[in-house]
Amino acid sequence: MRKALTIAGLFFIILVVITEFVLPGLVRGTLRTKAASRLATSDVTVAVDSAPAALLALGEADTLHVVAHQAKVGDVTVQELTLDGKVVRFDVPALVRGEGVTVNGARELRLQGIVSEDDLRAVIAQKVDRLEDVAVRITPDGVLTTASVKLFGRKADVEMEGEVVEDGGALYFRMRRLNIKNALLGTAKLGDMFGSFQLAAADKLPFGLKLQRAIQKDGIVLLTAEREPGKAAQ
To answer: Residue 184: what pLDDT?
Structure first.
């Protein structure tokens, strides 16, 4: 009888250790790995807590806070990305099986990202690869890009106005005005070399988040995303 009680006591202690320390640590580590992989950055910190900690083993997190720097969202680098959640429910069996982190529900799950002028300059120079000496200025009125381009052996000055917008959960740069100086051909004939393009598809954010707004401010584009209620996603 005493031996059975001793074994039961040891089993209980092991169970407490697993639920209080091992599984919560697994949840935190997997969250960080998943976020780092999806955002293509190693600069990620994750804080996820519940009281008591054993609730994490059951997939219930009171609070979730993720911060990533120089994260990739589609083709654009995001200078800083923060994610905050309250009462977030994870699929622990899927996590233990190595299937990643599935969010089954959340009272609140919200992301904000900051795209700097240099971040936007880099992706515009990549998308329109013939541009040289690219400079970008972001204001509440839109995005002004100035650059030079070689056309038929002659350098021309390019001035392109546009805006960063959300459409269907995806992120786009949309051109509003194009002016090319010193070109042998008119702007209208060269317009097909430039134009609008996608920055990030709708499925590039982690944990089932969907981009909802892109707001231009002085020097930055502020991205906001929220998880759709009732939608389970990885």
So the answer is: 56
Structure tokens, 35: 């976020």
Q: pLDDT tens across 214-225, in order?
A: 999 999 999 999
User: Which ranges of the chain have pLDDT less than 50?
Assistant: 5, 11-12, 15, 17, 188-189, 232
% of the chain at pLDDT higher than 90: 40
Cβ–Cβ under 8 Å, residues 180 and 187 = yes
Extended beta strands in the chain, E state: 44-49, 60-73, 76-90, 103-116, 131-139, 142-151, 154-167, 170-181, 197-200, 209-217, 220-227
Q: How many CB atoms lie within 10 A of CB 226?
A: 16
* Exposed/middle/buried for residue 144 (C-beta within 10 Å: 0-12, 13-18, 19+): middle
Q: Six-digit token pair at 173?
A: 């740069």
pLDDT reported for residue 102: 76
36 token code pair: 């780092």
Contact (CB, 8 A) for 163 and 143:
yes
Query: Given this model, what pLDDT does residue 4 score?
Result: 53
Q: Rounding to the nearest 10 degrees, give the CA dihedral for residues 33, 34, 38, 44.
A: -50
Cα–Cα dist 119/81, whole Å: 13
Question: What's phi and psi for 142, nearest 5 deg?
Answer: 150, -160
- Number of residues in the chain: 234
